[in-house]
Amino acid sequence: MRIRTKLLIFFLLVSLVPLLLVWGGVRRDLTSMGENLADRSGNLLVRKASQSLQRVVADHAAILHRERQLLEATARLLASKVEGALSGHGHVLPAETYTPPEDRLADLKRDYFSLGMAGVREPMDVDFGHVSTWSGDADTPLARLAPTLGRIKAEHPRLLLWIDVAMKDGDRARYPVASAARMGGGMGMMGGGRGMMGAMGSASGDNGFPDGLTWASPEVDRATGRMVFAVSAPIRDTGGAVSGRLTLVVPVDAVLHEESRNSPFPAGTESLLVAPRTDPDTNEPGLRIVARERTETTGRVGMGHMWIPEADAWLTPENTAPMKDVAASMLAGESGVLNMGGTGGGELWAYAPMDKSGVSLLLIVPEEDIVKEARAARGYVAGQVRQHNAKMGAVVLVVAVVVILMAFFLSKLFTRNIRELARAVHSVARGDFSVRARIRSRDEVGRLGRAFNAMIPELQDKVRMQNSLEVAQEVQLSLLPGHDPEFPGADIAGASTYSDETGGDYYDFIPRTTDRGDSLVVAVGDVSGHGVQAALTMASARAYLRSLLSGGAPLGEAVQAVNRLVFEDTDGSGRFMTLFLLELFADGAMEWVRAGHDPALLFTPVRERFEELQGEGLPLGVTPDATFTVGRSKAAPGQVAVIGTDGIWEAVSPGGEMFGKDRFKALIREHAGENAAALVKTVNQAVTVFRATAPQRDDMTLAVVRWV
């Protein structure tokens, strides 16, 4: 990063950071205040709404209970009167007509209308003075029920919509009488054996004529298009046997008292009738929608009427976890209020069961409508925060412009000497060692420039030395074999890896002719230490050894001669060299000389056995008159001879563990069937993996001979 940039950052930090901290603190406090105000207000509104809903459903549950008792008592009473009329006990006046009281007539007609799709009410032509009959004789006693049924209807004008009587002998009666044009060709829930009453009457056996009070699930009345449900009581003959049934058809609106129920709640409140059932798609407890509230054109909730949705309509909230508990609570006849959360906003559910099957009234109030005022307060605070941010943003912008201008001019003055020093560094990096940094100041930058100028000659010497080492490395690598040799009956390979640019390890393949015929000498050596001096000693020993062996000198005499020459080169330096020579003959015979080197390993796969090729002899250069013994043996096909330096088994892992000869032998044993080059590569890779991130401390050399 440039100094100019650093100065700019420094000035910005000094000037803008305190300002930004104050700005951020005020913004945070204002935002937090708005959020807390909105949250607390919203929680308060939701709590109050929950309490109101709780009271509503509790009151509704009580009303439902009273209405249920009233309807059941009315059904039993009216069934008793019908029984008396049918048995001739004098409960019915001889007249077949009934005249309702004038003061009740308007109230009676109020609930008889058909409800169109748009929610428009169309009045129906209803006769309260007669009873409609079907399937019976003209003089059926059912026709004389008008006074009895009319009085019950007059006592409960808003509670009862239709009163139906059905006998087992096929006679039917309904009160009051509605015009056929308004009935759509049928008789509502009872029309011609269709609808709710028709379904009950057409059931096989006596299933349509229960022995006790029964409640039917809510359905739509085809005459008015309103949601209704029915309570039925048995009609018995003089012997006590069930001979028919009396059914009271009750509007859902009348029982639910919708006009008073929803008025305290927002316009978004939804009213439904639901039944706890098992969802066929998920096989989990759910709520099937029995009916929805249809609002009128005014949009006012609570003034509409219930209508039946599709048969497979289900209530599917985003959070389905509480559904099982809600369904169980409805089946148990309990009412309650539940907060249903979701990503789109929460809802308050208030429910109260209507019958033992669990059919319940469910009010859904969107939480968004409840907390509208709290959100308005939050919006006001957010607007104030935005105004504050705009003002502070202008101040910050002005300060930033001033700081940038100051940083630009001051940095140009401060960085002049640094730019000069950077120019000199780039020139040296390109190889120009004649350049000098022209810096006149006496500050720290000036001292750095003078130190840099003094460093350039030393750096030039270092570079020259590095170039020399690279040349020496190339020379040393050229002294190693360029390829693996070919020799009858043997597969041979070798490799060296140096820890520095130059090293002291050495291996060679020297072909020669002796009195026993053509042979090949495999040489592996290790000069103490590593670096340039070790490389020079290795190069000298290689030259001596190649000269003597190529001249035909016996293996032992050649090593003695090389020892004297190396001693003369290293006398007084404390440097020495270990060497192992293995000479191969075409008939499988082999000879070896060990000059202080680790013994070569001869592995016989058939016997799974390692044998060390031992021999007496000091390292080269220790003493001029050292003697060396020559070992002799004969190899068999499949045997493998490996000659390595201690850089292999003394390699150290990052944890300080040594590679070791046991691990080295295990590699040879496992891969003895591979060719020599593959075996060399396998060992080198294994050591590299073992060493991992640890540095290579010593040169590694390995030569492998495999008889085939």
List the keywords.
single chain; 708 residues; alpha+beta; seven-stranded antiparallel β-sheet; 17 helices
Notes on the protein architecture:
This protein is an alpha+beta fold and 708 residues long. It is built from 17 helices and 29 strands. Strands 4, 5, 6, 8, 9, 10 and 11 form a seven-stranded antiparallel sheet that branches. Strands 12, 13, 14, 15, 16, 17 and 18 form a seven-stranded antiparallel sheet that branches. Strands 19-20-29-28-25-26 form a six-stranded antiparallel sheet. The longest helix is centred in the first third of the chain and has 85 residues, at 3-87. It starts with a helix and ends with a strand. Residues 181-206 and 296-304 have low confidence and may be disordered.
- The low-confidence runs, each spanning 5 or more residues with pLDDT under 50, are 181-206, 296-304
How confident overall, as mean pLDDT?
80
The radius of gyration is 55 Å
Q: Treating each run of at least 4 consecutive H or I residues as one helix, how many helices?
A: 17
Q: How much of the polypeptide forms β-strand, as a percent range?
A: 15-25%
Largest sheet: 7 strands, antiparallel
Judged by helices, strands and strand pairing, the structural class is: alpha+beta
Q: Helix coverage percent of residues? A: 40-55%
The N- to C-terminal Cα distance equals 65 Å
Using the alpha-carbon principal axes, give the shape.
elongated
Total strand segments:
29
